[in-house]
Amino acid sequence: MNNRNPIIALDFSAKEEVLQFLKPFDEKLFVKVGMELYLQEGPTIVTDLKEMGHDVFLDLKLHDIPNTVQSAMRGLAKLGADLVNVHAAGGLRMMESALEGLEAGTEAGKQRPLLIAVTQLTSTSEQQMKSEQKINLSLQESVIHYAELSKRAGLDGVVCSVLEAADINKFCGEDFLRVTPGIRLSDSTVHDQIRIATPEVARSEGSSLIVVGRAITQSENPVETYQLVKQQWEVLQ
Ligand SMILES: O=C(O)c1cc(=O)[nH]c(=O)n1[C@@H]1O[C@H](COP(=O)(O)O)[C@@H](O)[C@H]1O
What we know:
This protein is an alpha/beta fold.
C-alpha cells in the first residue's frame, strides 16, 4: 500500500453528505466506506469515490460461513476498492475462502484489493472480551492470536488498536499491515472507543495506516483537523 495518508472514515448516511464533506478538500484522499454508508447507497458509492480519484477502504467486516464470504468477496472485488476486511473470528477457513473469492473476482491485469481481518474491535475492553466472548486470554494475546491466524490464512494484515501494533509487527513482520482505528487527538471526545491513541503514538508504535472518523468529520474545520492529524502522523510516503 503506497498511500500512507490517514484514512478518513466516511461514516455518513447519504452520498450528498459525503460530497458536502469532501468539497473543501483539494487533494486525493484515502477514505473508508463502512456499513452505514454502503447499506444506504450501495456499491456505486465505492465506484463513485474511485472515479473521483480517492483510494477506498471498503469496511464491511464480513463474517459468515466460508462459502458465503467467498462469493461475497468475488462480487466485491469488481468494485475496485483498495482494501477490504473480514472478522478474524470467522476462522481460518473463512479467511482463506475470502482471499480465494477476491482473487477469483479480480479482473485480469488489475490489482487484487488488500484483505485484512478485524482482531478485537477497538471498542472492546479486556474485561468485556473475557465476560462476553469467554476468551480466557489477555486482550493482547487474543489480538496477536487472531493476527497470526490471519497471516496463516494468507491475508495482508489486520485491524487492531495502536496498543497491539508493535507486538504484531514483532510476531507477524513489518510487511503485515497493522491498520489502526481508535485514533483521537489529545483533546478529542472518546465516544464509544476504548483502545485509543493519538496519531503520534500510532506512528511510534508502528501502525501501517490510521483510520480517523469523528475527530475529523465532526470537527468545526475538517480540512484543518485532517492536516493536523497528517502532521502528527508524519510517516514518510
Ligand atoms: O474495521 C474498522 O474500520 C474498525 C475496526 C475497529 O476495531 N474499530 C473501528 O473503530 N473501526 C472503524 O473505524 C472507524 C472509527 O471511527 P471514529 O471512532 O469516529 O474515529 C469507524 O468507522 C469504525 O467502524
